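Sequence in, structure out.
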Amino acid sequence: MPRKNYLFTSESVSEGHPDKLCDRVSDEILDLFFKEAARTGVDAYKVRVACETLATTNRVVIAGEVRGPAISVAKIEDTARQAIRSIGYEQAGFHWQNANIEVLLHAQSVDIARGVDAVGNKDEGAGDQGIMFGYACVETPELMPAPIYYAHKILENLARARKLKEGGAVKLGPDAKSQVTIRYAGGKPVEATQIVLSTQQLDADLTSEDVRAIVEPYIRATLPHAWITEDTVWHVNPTGKFVIGGPDGDCGMTGRKIIVDTYGGAAPHGGGAFSGKDPTKVDRSAAYAARYLAKNVVAAGLAERCTIQLAYAIGFPEPLSIYVDTHGTGRVPEDKLEMALPQVMRLTPRGIRDHLALNRPIYARTAAYGHFGRAPEADGGFSWEKTDLVPKLLASFG
């Protein structure tokens, strides 16, 4: 039986965290390739991007392999600069205008292309081998685990206040991290026992107490009112000062925040990162599909918690295995769900791309505050958060 009474902690990092900045740049470049494909008439199904970014003091290196529309180095460089500008970096050690940006993208390997491309009667194959997990639970309206959901929301709300120059938030910088410890009673989240917030401060004279005075109202407004009590322990800028932030303070790289990107440790992770990868890469697209299926299972009332694993081999279209675990909360047998899921959604790379409409520039917005637990958007963003499979799933089980 699953535990009912325990503490669980998840962390998030802001869009200005060095690793998240790199995720954003990589995803902006992916979006650029889809935009240019649409503009120039290149088939979006032929776009291939595997883009990695490294950022350090006033330097950004963009590397990887691509295929699709011809895009100049200058346009890629400008895309990176505008992403950095949007995040808010205009400091001496890292400035969107002055940073040295090096672009080292090259053509996709023909060996990879041979396995992935659809040719004749051969369907599009998976862009790599690997295992991907999806998860959903009833802890929040968005069917996400509470600790990671609220850790994200704290930073998202502070970033919004910083950009709107609200009150004391104008004194905060782009780089920040949060961490929330939630107490569970009877299997339900009931209290925040510890709150950690480290945020870059633009004013070196601010003390930890000054920073807490700025951020505490936003944190209290983010968490359920009853969850913050007189016993809640606060750790705000616990080192005392956090002035040097972003890539000037710590080197960043694409793909280093995979637990932040998913379920905050509440569910397994297959190990593959998302950002900078086009949807032929099942690390990304199949993880989106697994979340989509798990969320619909829970939304349909077939379970209160659901973990789904999908596995693929490079060059092969069909998943090697489908595994479902409802953690003792299921209302239908798990083996029946494993048979039903591929009937309501085709789980080949092409099928996932078609069903979730992934061949479009929707990726930069995923780079911070989680890929999951977000509202589906009118232009197709976060399509994997829809619950439109509920009627089909319910019909499958009478």
